[in-house]
Design brief:
GO terms for molecular function: heme binding; iron ion binding; monooxygenase activity; oxidoreductase activity, acting on paired donors, with incorporation or reduction of molecular oxygen. Keywords: Endoplasmic reticulum, Heme, Iron, Membrane, Metal-binding, Microsome, Monooxygenase, Oxidoreductase, Transmembrane, Transmembrane helix. Belongs to the cytochrome P450 family. The termini are far apart. The chain contains 20 helices and nine strands. A hairpin with a 2-residue loop joins strand 1 and strand 2. The chain has a domain of 167 residues. The chain is of the alpha+beta class and 505 residues long. The relative contact order is 0.15.
């Protein structure tokens, strides 16, 4: 009888908790004087994505167009009150001018459960983030990128040579898969200190572990991701980990053994592990543990496997369907390469002006990070969102969303926004771009620390490919991209298939 009573009480308490959860979620914004969008029970304002009715970029675009003239409005990310910031001046105020009020990103993992993910510089918060960021920043300067240039260049050369040696494969290539293999090899050598060739050895353990670690599309991983956002305390109490135990163990042992061997044998290799070990030894009063080193190295996977390879995929797609741009870019590459016997060194690569324009326009059209966020840590007031509304007090714990994709596609800021036009970023025109409307790597002090590295690895592979190949569409290609509704990130439905033809053909 006693057990039955406990069960009944547990059910009642659980039901009351769910009722309160839904009531708070459905009434939160209506009790505050702020424009807001419709909330669906449990999943908040994001139902179309989780029900796979819309892709994530489409949802962000649709949400952005709600309350068209509003500077911001309220929505719900599951049960978390979230403010969609639409006004560039307010984006500046929140992310730069008053950074100390909203200094953090929202994390979807718990440090005790997933230290590898939670300890990376993207996930860290407050003073610990400041310590680690200041420690890591010297590792991402231009001089340190030059330090790693040859490692990345070797991966690129191997990638291109494989396509040269396998012309049939090159005639119909799934670009997302191919570039994921390239970025895997770059990450392996530049961040973890090992060499792999994932086009040649397609099932190498490093690649398979990386795929497992960065996939958000499996049913179990999707459930964990949703639960981590909607019920972080429950996830923590139940001990759910985002990474599989085998993958966690693989990366932990790999880096621990690498660091130990280098310490004992005084090994120096021009890669991220070495730079992190230097940072560990050079910062008095700041503790950099082996878990910190693992976390920072692992962020290369989260960034490289998805965002960098996604960017390269869409960039190649745009070049395939815009031959004039591809030809002009190839001519720029050839001209610089001829000065040094066909080679392109780091200094020349970073100064390719037209390549920079092309890449920026591709990032505008298809930013790998569709949205970024900030977490409020101290209450403050926003000016009224619309005429007739009062100032709004942002409460501690509220989230800001910065709709990168939607801002990049707003005709108010980028006329004819769906057109691929690198000239938007030439010397004359780029000064006309309104600040805080173009931010593919984020904005302010929490801007992506790996921007230089991601840009470098993209420029290298692009230069090497265009020296050897002409990129063309295949029978599977469609110029207009349809986004995949099953993917939480920006991705093309059915993949992005292109053909690489040798230039002498």
């Amino acid at each position: 009888m006693e057990h039955l009573t406990i069960i009944i009480l547990s059910i009642i308490i659980g039901a009351l908790g769910v009722i309160y959860f839904i009531y708070r979620q459905m009434t939160f914004w209506s009790s505050r004087e702020i424009p807001h969008v419709k909330t669906i029970p449990i999943i908040g304002s994001l139902g179309a994505v989780f029900l796979r009715q819309k892709s994530f970029p489409e949802l962000i675009q649709d949400l952005y167009l709600k309350h068209k003239d509003a500077k911001y409005y309220g929505m719900m990310d599951f049960n978390t009150p979230t403010i969609m910031l639409k006004d560039p001046d307010l984006i500046r105020d929140v992310c730069v001018k008053n950074f100390e009020l909203c200094p953090n990103h929202r994390s979807f993992v718990d440090e005790a459960m997933d230290p590898i993910i939670a300890k990376n510089v993207f996930s860290l918060r407050d003073e610990r983030w400041r310590e680690v960021r200041s420690t890591l920043s010297p590792s991402f300067t231009a001089s340190k990128m030059k330090f790693m240039f040859e490692l990345v260049s070797k991966c690129s050369e191997d990638f291109v040579q494989y396509l040269v040696d396998h012309p049939e494969m090159a005639k119909s290539l799934d670009m997302k898969d191919a570039y994921t293999r390239y970025t895997n090899d770059v990450i392996a050598t530049a961040a973890f200190g090992i060499s792999v060739n994932s086009l040649k050895n397609r099932d190498n353990e490093f690649y398979l572990r990386g795929k497992d670690a960065t996939s958000f599309n499996g049913i179990l991983r999707t459930i964990k991701f949703i639960a981590g956002r909607a019920m972080p305390r429950v996830m923590r109490l139940m001990g759910f980990k985002f990474l599989s135990q085998d993958t966690d163990k693989f990366f932990h042992e790999l880096i621990t053994e690498t660091v130990k061997a280098r310490d004992e044998n005084k090994i120096i290799r021009p890669d991220m592990i070495h730079l992190l070990m230097q940072a560990r030894n050079n910062r008095a009063g700041i503790s950099i543990t082996i878990d910190d080193i693992i976390g920072q190295a692992f962020i290369f996977f989260l960034a490289g496997f998805d965002t960098s390879s996604t960017f390269m995929t869409f960039l190649s797609h745009l070049l395939a369907f815009n031959e004039d741009v591809q030809d002009k870019l190839r001519n720029e590459i050839d001209e610089v390469a001829q000065e040094d016997g066909g080679k392109i060194n780091y200094d020349k690569l970073v100064n390719l002006k037209y390549m920079e324009m092309v890449m920026n326009e591709a990032l505008r059209l298809y930013p790998p990070a569709v949205v970024t966020d900030r977490v409020c840590v101290q209450s403050f007031k926003l000016p009224s969102s619309l005429p007739g509304y009062n100032e709004f007090t942002v409460e501690k714990g509220m989230i800001f969303w910065l709709p990168i994709y939607a801002l990049h596609h707003d005709p108010k800021y980028f006329p004819n926004p769906e057109k691929f036009d690198p000239e938007r970023f030439n010397d004359d025109n780029k000064s006309n771009i309104i600040p805080y409307t173009f931010m593919p790597f984020g904005i302010g002090p929490r801007k992506c620390i790996g921007e230089r590295f991601a840009t470098m690895e993209t420029k290298i592979i692009l230069a090497h490919l265009l020296q050897k190949f002409i990129i063309k569409p295949t029978d599977k290609s469609t110029e207009k991209i349809e986004f995949d509704k099953k993917n939480f990130n920006i991705a093309a439905k059915g993949g992005t298939w292109l053909s690489f033809h040798r230039r002498e053909e």
